[in-house]
Amino acid sequence: MRCNSCDIDLSNRDEQVTHYKSDWHRCNLKRKLKNLEKISEEKFDVADVGDISSISGSDSESELEEIIDESSVQESDHKIRHPRLFLRNKEGKLFSIFHCILYNKKDEPENENDLREIIKGLAIKTKWSIFMLSGGHFAGAVFDKNAMILHKTFHRYVVRAKRGTVQSQHDKKGGHAKSAGANLRRYNEASLTQQIQNILKEWSCDIATSSRIFIRCSMSSRSILFSGKSPVLLKDDKRITHMPFPTRRPTLKEVQRVHAKLSNCLFYSDESVLVRSPPQKVKKSPVRRENIKSNTSKRKKRRNSIDSEEIEKQESSTEDDEDDCITNYNLTAAMETFSTGNLKEYEHSFGNKKEDELKKLRNEIYTYCKYGDESKLKDALKDSKVTKKFLNERFGREDTTFLHTACKNKFENIIVLLLDVGCDPTIRDKSGSYPYVVAQDRQTRNILRKYRTANPTQYDYEKAQVSCVLNVYCVTN
């Protein structure tokens, strides 16, 4: 038998076991891990204690007591760095809660008395706000105890396909793409920022009265939550803290799961059941300061090379019982506004306010023509921006007009109203068809023919292929 770490021969099994339990062997193992040379037993006994680390320590008052016991230091640091705070109640039962629900890193209590007062006030400070943002997905909610009093979720297309990064991050690297998709993602990022800031302003009263504010977003997306003319969330707010565990894609169910996990209290039957897994982030300590600095720099490099916003940390596929949150949804009927915009390549300018207003007005009029809302259409046509040129512009993939839309959907009153305000029936769509041709039934065509009879000189009806004056049979039918 032979020990390669200490370079000695062993005669039997008992001697081998005794040697492996000795401080000399453990010291050589540690030196081997650090790529240091092994030392002899004589040198170990007389060596300077400052150069050697003891594993098991010594019960006597020898020089080995001055040696830094790295395992004990790591153990104590682990307790400090653990995301949960371990306490005992009056009955002596061991339990734990998350540090973040008590204080953030910048506002840690100085002594146990301050910590005790914070824990006592935890029972009445139960109004929490939670905001999550990742990959264009946003989810936010305000909880008062277990009741969710406010919530909002939505999604915008901002992530580049097969790239995993948002468009703004790609632009910062110098690659300003001019494709339709890139312009759409830039527009959606601006809309996402504005929409989130509007929600924060609407909830400002509830956010101001919240005792804790939990956020989850990447470094590059924090400006969305903390920016604006008068931001609701401030970076130096001591109530704001980050979630101490991985989360999934921001959804309403995920926000509920996060709240349930943050507010739970774990009880333990014995200290031995505590899991002592190494933490991901290590605080700086006097021991091995150079190694910690090097590890920190490596983590920063990895963080800079990978956009953390697009990486969703996946947990186990089977959820815990605490994840099973049931939500009741109320379904309400609502009119949907159809957008006539397409994905053709264009140069978008966020400063062109007039063009955006015309686009919004066109979408509204198109929606009223599609669904036959005559009263709202009359109000929209009173807008000063509505001109004959505007009414007769073609839009969308089919190069259609408002009159084409009304004829396709068989709204007689809408057709007459559009003709009265100047919608020209001689304009073709992309397929070369006139509004009279796209009308799907005889009754709709008769409306155009009646209008020709009542207003014979208003339009070129022959060019529009509108039939001549109605006979008695057509009028009666």
Automatic annotation (TrEMBL):
UniProtKB keywords: ANK repeat, Coiled coil, Cytoplasm, Endonuclease, Hydrolase, Nuclease, Repeat
Sequence segments annotated as region (Disordered): 278-323
Gene Ontology biological process terms, A to Z: ERAD pathway
Keyword Secreted applies: no
GO CC annotation terms, alphabetical: cytoplasm
Main localization of the protein described in the UniProt heading: cytoplasm
Record-annotated VLRF1 domain positions: 124-265
Record has Metal-binding as a keyword: no
ANK repeat feature ranges: 398-430
Gene Ontology MF annotations: endonuclease activity; hydrolase activity
Entry annotation: catalytic residues: 167
Subcellular location per the Swiss-Prot or TrEMBL entry: Cytoplasm
Family: Belongs to the ANKZF1/VMS1 family.
Domain remarks: The VLRF1 domain mediates binding to the 60S ribosomal subunit.
This protein's name: DgyrCDS6616
